[in-house]
Design a protein that fits this description.
two-stranded antiparallel sheet, single chain, mainly alpha
């Protein structure tokens, strides 16, 4: 549950930060600071997501409530797609930074040096490769935004419409029925 909420808050932060970096008129210094923080949180999400996936493979999740098989398949598929994006988004961002013509090193939270993406440093400054990584990273950001909205909507549907325990069992301090 803790990993779920840490990653969820990280993802929401990253979406807001990414949209701000791209769409707001920020000073160069602010934009630079935002990019550095975005990289740091992104790598943190990657590491937490890998830990979460390991946990998921070694611990059976609680059973889904009684619902149609198609809904169960949709819930399972959405969760696995979210897991995939929790890994792919940071990886494509890491590739984008490595391929950038600016060669700005990544130092997580200002004190942990992070290497270039293995095997890609030789292509740094390659405009086509950098553009492709940037395009993929940004589009996956919109995909995860859509999936987060779907995930939250499904949880709210379970809570308010179906009145089952799905949302309560994921809230840290909620009473379970």
């Amino acid at each position: 549950m803790t990993l779920h909420w840490v990653i969820a808050l990280g993802i929401l932060f990253q979406i807001a930060m990414g949209l701000a970096m791209v769409h707001l008129d920020l000073s160069d210094a602010t934009k630079f600071s935002f990019y550095q923080l975005h990289k740091s949180v992104g790598i943190s999400i990657l590491l937490a997501a890998l830990l979460r996936i390991l946990w998921r493979f070694t611990h059976r999740p609680p059973p889904l409530p009684d619902m149609p098989e198609l809904e169960k398949a949709a819930a399972t598929g959405t969760h696995w797609l979210l897991y995939a994006l929790m890994v792919l988004l940071p990886l494509t961002g890491w590739a984008d930074v490595t391929l950038s013509p600016f060669h700005i090193p990544t130092v997580l939270f200002g004190w942990v040096p992070w290497p270039n993406f293995p095997g890609l440093a030789a292509y740094a400054g390659n405009k086509a490769a950098n553009d492709a990584a940037d395009f993929i990273h940004s589009k996956l950001g919109y995909v995860i935004l859509g999936l987060v909205v779907l995930h939250v909507a499904a949880a709210l549907r379970h809570h308010f419409w179906l009145r089952d325990d799905v949302l309560r069992r994921m809230l840290p301090f909620a009473r379970r029925t």
